[in-house]
Amino acid sequence: MAFTKLDSYIVHSSVWAASHTTRIVWITMLALKDRNGEVHASLPGLANAARVELHECEEAVNYLSAPDPYSRTSDNEGRRIEPIEGGWIVLNHDKYRDLDSLEDRRRKDRERQRRKREKDRSRDKEPTSRDNTPLSRQSRDSHVKSHHADPDPDADPDPDQREEEKRDPQPTPTDGVRDPVNDASRKREGVSSFDAFWHEYPKRRRVGKRDAQRAWNRARKLKEWPGAAEVIAALGRCKQSRDWQKNGGEFVPHPTTWINRGGWDDELGRRGDGYREVLEELAEEDDDE
Predict the structure, then answer these.
(1) pLDDT on residue 221
(2) pTM of this prediction?
(3) How far apart are CA 123 and CA 119, in angstroms?
(4) Helix, strand, or coil here: 239?
(5) Which residue among 49, 189, 239, 269 is the one 20 to 30 A from 11 at the CA level?
(6) DSSP character for 128?
(7) Residue 85's CATH number
């Protein structure tokens, strides 16, 4: 069902000073015009729609078609309608349609600004955390992270990790070597033995973490495994050796290489050839898989 917006300023226009039948016919034509501003009707049909006599409707049409020096709009010499095939066209239709569109945009802008102000006020009243993050958003973000977080690529893939942590005591200071687990740079609970080893390894050669962790998991399953505390303590003594300190650590092996060859055996003065061969065989089996 079509409808027409009526400008409130019509009551201040010169047409409002015309006869009441002219006003009725004019309002009727505004209600009947289509999107192009055209009124399709015969004179008797328009009179019937406006509920006025035929001669009254004819007088109104003549008034609206004539120039009006007092019209608020100077376009078309103040004429309001013009005859066309099958009826009339409202001459200022496009002008008021554009005004309506502009007013609609302004109204929507005002409504959008009002909603934004209300949102800002509600945010100002919302409790915040120490970093000024709204608690509701902080809770929502943590919920999303818990459901969509990517798996940790450095997580221990071995299900025996918990058992290994129970079996291996946490590293303790040995021969003047600082305890990597209690190091101030890693003051957190639940650090695994491999994480402690990785943190203790010289930073310059700390590469291939996944390969190193797989080598670590293979090594600790062996019967000859001395325990994480002893391995990390041996690593600490290697770091103090002249070979590892030469040329800024240029000759320090990669972590995977050091684990696969049982580097702690060399440092402890034991021959690790047999142990090294077993580790190499296990590494080859993993590669075949």
Answers:
(1) 87
(2) 0.35
(3) 6
(4) helix
(5) 49
(6) B
(7) 1.10.10
